[in-house]
């Protein structure tokens, strides 16, 4: 299995290293045609406006949207989560193009500025159920987004308390009243995390993502074997 990692900007090297740790080849993606040779795609963290501008220059948006629609696994971490969402709010300068697919509204800088970056222990029972180990995970949040709304097909994997009143003032009025926000989701072949698992030594999110591919593959084989069942 080869996993493409969008390599225009941000923490793509760290994802490739994390994949190598679990024996999987990560392939740097900079051109649309390179997506034909990979079974899954990771869109890393970084800066979503810059990443979107570079992706546009490389004509990658149509190919990435096509990749999402094939049902192959796609994982967006942080800026990558923003790009995968159907809707992003909290942009000061008009925003950026999105790939979309994930039925979520994401607030781009929900947790504040770079200085308000933090680490916190998240409860992720699904991760323990699927990959073993503790049901906690140390989330690294760097100028992180949060998911404010998620559609009915979106499974919430982790949420997180809004850290302080200080940060809450950044968020527009309604969302400002929230006590907890969603920080990890799955919708079929799509995975989104507001934090950076590739910056920790715990490989379970990468394994979880790869196993999503196996599940999707098995499901499509079952569909072929039993037409009309789905
Ligand atoms: N909030 C950032 C953005 O808008 C993302 C930060 C990150 O990827 N660490 O792009």
From TrEMBL:
InterPro entries: Class_I_gatase-like, PdxT/SNO, PdxT/SNO_CS. It holds the Pfam family SNO. GO terms for molecular function: glutaminase activity; lyase activity. One of its GO terms (cellular component) is glutaminase complex. It comes from the Eukaryota. The active site is at 78 (nucleophile), 196 (charge relay system), 198 (charge relay system). It catalyses: L-glutamine + H2O = L-glutamate + NH4(+). Its EC number is 3.5.1.2. L-glutamine binds at residues 46-48, 108, 142-143. It is an enzyme of class 3 (hydrolase). Keywords: Glutamine amidotransferase, Hydrolase, Lyase. PROSITE patterns: GATASE_TYPE_1, PDXT_SNO_1, PDXT_SNO_2. One of its GO terms (biological process) is pyridoxine metabolic process. Belongs to the glutaminase PdxT/SNO family. NCBIfam families: PLP_synth_Pdx2. This is glutaminase. The gene is LOC120104088.
């Amino acid at each position: 299995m080869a996993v493409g990692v969008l390599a225009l900007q941000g923490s793509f090297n760290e994802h490739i290293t994390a994949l190598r740790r679990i024996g999987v080849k990560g392939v740097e993606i900079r051109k649309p045609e390179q997506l034909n040779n990979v079974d899954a795609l990771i869109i890393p963290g970084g800066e979503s406006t810059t990443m979107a501008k570079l992706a546009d220059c490389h004509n990658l948006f149509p190919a990435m949207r096509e990749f999402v629609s094939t049902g192959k696994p796609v994982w967006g971490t942080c800026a990558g989560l923003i790009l995968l969402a159907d809707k992003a709010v909290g942009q000061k300068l008009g925003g950026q193009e999105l790939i979309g697919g994930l039925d979520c509204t994401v607030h781009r800088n929900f947790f504040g500025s770079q200085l308000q970056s933090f680490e916190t222990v998240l409860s992720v029972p699904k991760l323990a159920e699927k990959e073993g180990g503790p049901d906690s995970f140390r989330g690294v949040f760097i100028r992180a987004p949060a998911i404010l709304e998620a559609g009915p097909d979106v499974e919430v994997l982790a949420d997180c308390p809004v850290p302080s009143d200080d940060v809450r003032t950044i968020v527009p009025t309604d969302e400002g009243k929230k006590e907890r926000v969603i920080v990890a989701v799955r919708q079929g072949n799509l995975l989104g995390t507001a934090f950076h698992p590739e910056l920790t030594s715990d490989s379970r999110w990468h394994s979880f993502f790869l196993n999503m591919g196996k599940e999707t593959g098995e499901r499509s084989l079952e569909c072929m074997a039993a037409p009309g069942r789905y």
